[in-house]
Every structure is written in structure tokens, then in C-alpha cells.
Amino acid sequence: MKSDEAKIPRHVGIIMDGNGRWATRRMLPRTAGHRAGVKNITPVVSAAFDVGVECVTLYAFSTENRGRDKAEVDALIDLIRKRLKPMTRELIARGAHVVFSGDTSYFPDDVQQIMSEIAAENVDGYEKTVNIALDYGGREEIVRAAKLASESGEVTAQSFERGLYTYGLPDLDMIVRTGGEKRLSNFLLYQAAYAELFFTDTLWPDFGGEELAEMFCQYNKRTRRFGK
Ligand code: IPE
Ligand code: IPE
Ligand code: MG
User: Fold this and answer.
1) Rounded distance, CA 174 to CA 178, Å?
2) Of 106, 104, 136, 135, which Cα lies nearest the Cα of 119?
3) Model confidence over 96-126: pLDDT tens digits?
4) Active-site choice (40, 65, 131, 186)
5) Closest ligand 2 atom, CA of 59?
6) Considering Cα of 196, then 68, then 133, then 47, what sign does the dihedral take?
7) What is the band of 1 on the pLDDT scale with cuts at 50, 70, 90?
8) Which residue among 74, 133, 135, 182 is the one 20 to 30 A from 106 at the CA level?
9) Ligand 2 pocket member 66 (CB < 6 A)
10) How far from chain centre, in Å, is Cα 154?
11) Which residues neighbour 78 within 8 Å (Cβ) at sequence distance 6 or greater?
12) What is the pLDDT of the chain when averaged over all its residues?
């Protein structure tokens, strides 16, 4: 796909689903699936950057995921604690700027500290952005943005959008969901208004650059009318 003739989505959101089933099928604990899922992030994001995508938002932990068994939530938080920094270093090394979306106050202080250290590690002159949706919920984001807009005066689309976690990022062009479910599960509800949706049965740890490239080809064939 040549970038001079292809339409490339500027901003792709990925709902990385299916880690638990990936592990269960291998008779492994669900946490092994989450570990395999984390390993898959840099290669897939790199494949997206290689074709010219500017921004990738990764759905890593939803506000509803807090309601899972305590052991699984604790294991996920521990994985964030151990893997977030090495993973973001890999992404920064590929020219990316790493930002977060979500109400991270739910996470333990040391994890919040890791997240602020990552923000401080970002260098100027980046070309790409990786936005990690951690403890993110679309409804929570909408309520938050509405509150911020009303506090600032008149509520308009502009003042509202300023309060979104994604403010400043390009419009969302495409959402990919792995793991077979055909739903958004509270991901980027406002931003998804005109995003092209792609679903695959492939479980997240098995999803790779080839399948993503096929989705980009399909994206290129779709006509985005935006109601016109
Ligand atoms: C996605 O995989 C990762 C998170 C939601 C944290 P799941 O853990 O939802 O895996 P499945 O859907 O149960 O297979
Ligand atoms: C969506 O997956 C959230 C993330 C991938 C982080 P879930 O597994 O939580 O979604 P549901 O429960 O199938 O809707
Ligand atoms: Mg799931």
C-alpha cells in the first residue's frame, strides 16, 4: 500500500480483547493471556506507524474492568506496574509520544507515579502518539467533559471537546476490536461518531500486522460520507 495513493487513517483505536480466552484455550491462567497481550502491543503499533497512522489509542483497562475478580484486577495492576515503563520506552524509541486517557486515581500511588514519570520521559519533536486508555470509560469521560465545560461557562461542542481526554489528538478514523465481540464496551463513545468499525475473531495476543494491513486495505475501499 503506497501512502501517496492510499487513504490512511490518522487515528486508530484498538479494543484489545480476548486475552483471557487465549490463555484458557492453552490451559493457562488468564494472567498469562494478559502478559502475551502486552507483548503484542509494540509490534502492532509499529505496523500501524509503518503505514503512516499518526495516533493509536489502546484500550487497556476499562472502568468496568474494576469489577473483575480481585485477583485478576491485582494481576493486571501488577502487570501495568512492571511492564508499562519498558513498553513505553519501546514506543518512545519508535518516535512516539505516550499519553494516557482515563481516571487514573483508582490505581495505587506507585502506578500513578510510574505514569507521571512516563509523561516526563516524552521528548519533543515526536511524530506519533500512543494514547493508552487505562481505567477509561466513555461515559465517565463524557460526564467529566460536560462538568468541565459547564464550569468554564457556555457548553458548546468546542468547550465540551476541550474536556475530553483525547483533546488535541486527530479525529478517530477507525476502531479495531479483536476477540470476536461486536460492541464498543464503553470505548471512545463520543469520538466513535464517524469511525469505521472493524471486528475480528482473532484473539488479541494472536493479532498481527498482516491482519491489520488487510483492515487498512478494507478501510481504503470504504466511502466515508459523514452524512453527506
Ligand atoms: C482484554 O482481554 C483485556 C482486558 C479487558 C483487561 P479479556 O481479559 O477481556 O479477555 P477475554 O475477553 O475474557 O477473553
Ligand atoms: C473491553 O473488553 C475492554 C478492554 C479491552 C480493555 P471487555 O472484555 O472488558 O468487554 P466486554 O465485557 O466483553 O464487553
Ligand atoms: Mg474480554
Assistant:
1) 13
2) 104
3) 999 999 998 999 999 999 999 998 887 777 8
4) 65
5) 6
6) negative
7) very low
8) 182
9) no
10) 30
11) none
12) 95
Closest ligand 2 atom to residue 17 Cα is: 5
All three cell numbers of 142: 463524557
The enclosing H or E element of 160 equals helix 157-162
Does ligand 2 come within 6 angstroms of the Cβ of 185? yes
Ligand 2 pocket test: pick from 40, 58, 62, 132 the residue with the most ligand atoms within 8 Å of its Cβ. Answer: 62
Confirm if 34 and 75 have CB atoms less than 8 A apart: yes
Query: Could you tell me what percent of the chain has a pLDDT over 70?
Result: 98
Q: Does domain 11-137+173-219 have CATH number 3.40.1180.10?
A: yes
Amino acid at position 169, single letter: L
Strands (E), the chain: 11-15, 55-62, 96-101, 128-136, 174-177, 196-199
Atom of ligand 1 nearest to the CA of 24: 14
The DSSP result for 90-121, as a single string, is HHHHTTEEEEEES-GGGS-HHHHHHHHHHHHH
> Ligand 1: does its nearest atom lie under 6 Å from the Cβ of 102?
no
Pairwise CA distance, residues 76 & 89, whole Å: 19
220 is written with which cell numbers?
Answer: 481504503
Q: What is the pTM of this model?
A: 0.96
